[in-house]
Amino acid sequence: MEILETLRDEIVGFFSINGLVEIIRSGDYHSLRTWSGIQTVLSPLIPFIVIIEILLAFAHKNFNRAEYKIPFFIYIFNRIIGKFISFGVIAFCIGLLSPYALLPVSLTWYWFIYGYIVWEFAHFIYHFLAHKVRLFWCLHSSHHAPEQMNLSVTYAHFFLEGPYADFIRTSICILAGVPPVMLFAIMFIDGTWGGFIHVGENFMKNARFGFLGKFILTPSHHRVHHARNPLYMDTNFCNLLNIWDRVFKTYQPEQNDITIQYGITRSINAGNFFDVYFGEFYYLAKDVARAPGIKNKFLYLIMPPGWSHTGNHMLAKDIRRQYMNTHAGKSLMDSPPGGDQRKSA
């Protein structure tokens, strides 16, 4: 019975329906007028869309169990060993840095806009470093390893990436004066959207969102981010507002004539949990062990993925620059007109 109860609790926890069930049982819907009540209702949204996405894949007769297997294993693994670490990091940063806030931010709509822009900047910093510092890439790479895009990819993260991300994002926001209550509201909104932008083509084929795509980061933009195509590498680091990608020149719309190739550039067994979850750490350890001298060993930790002490390397920025120079006659920064004509990857 205990095993069945544990299984039930895990299923209910995955769908985040405890609070919603309690509201329905009590018959008291006044809480839906509060922010907490809204969170309670919206939290199950992404998990239920995952199920719908799977059902649509069955209906289209293109369901591939392997696409969901590794993200599911990673979700279970992270639930066991990393459940409370991120909460502890967030609480630590708030307690340590709140006295040093630079601005007295109040809970008003205009300060909320300020807080969200600051949060997006903090998210950009974390995400950019996750691609540009090899040790951080080891934490982030399991999220990019899947070779198809669907909502299960949302759950494919190394268990220490959350604490690393939350340390950077929370620290920047608290120092910028964003109060904890506002920060938690922003985290919820951003987390929900950050899950949704992984939606697959079985659920949403054309995910550009028309004119809104000029201002927000859409699933189409995030599909580009997960691509290993030369043009698409290391672009679209934002989560909801694409303002910082435009500021730092990392903004890249999806091109109709470029088929997205998902995954990472090294040879990987995307169906092997250990390769997906620990593979980058293994290859980093090999490079550090072979590197001559302490300086080179340290540089392997902080330089971008692909860097070599011999100088015989092509980093992602070099590959992208070479591609853009080769295709200089064509505009690659604005999406061409027309619908989504991209072939299936």
Report on the structure:
56% of the residues lie in helices and 0% in strands. With 345 residues, the chain is mainly alpha-helical. The protein has one domain (68-345). The longest helix has 24 residues, at 109-132. It is globular.
**For the terminal residues, how far apart are their CA atoms?**
45 Å
**Helix coverage percent of residues?**
55-70%
Helix vs. strand class: mainly alpha
Strand content: under 5%
Number of structural units classed as domains:
1
User: Based on CA inertia axes, which overall geometry fits?
Assistant: globular
Largest sheet: none
Q: How confident overall, as mean pLDDT?
A: 83
> What's the β-strand tally?
0
- N-to-C series of helices and strands: HHHHHHHHHHHHHHH
Poorly predicted runs: 335-345
Helix segment tally: 15
Short descriptors:
single chain, 345 residues, mainly alpha, 15 helices, 0% strand, iron ion binding, lipid metabolism, glyceryl-ether monooxygenase activity
What is this structure's SSE topology?
Elements: H1 2-15, H2 18-26, H3 35-42, H4 45-59, H5 65-81, H6 85-97, H7 109-132, H8 134-144, H9 161-175, H10 180-196, H11 219-225, H12 243-247, H13 273-290, H14 293-302, H15 316-326
Helix pairs in contact: 6-9, 7-8, 7-9, 7-10, 8-13, 13-14
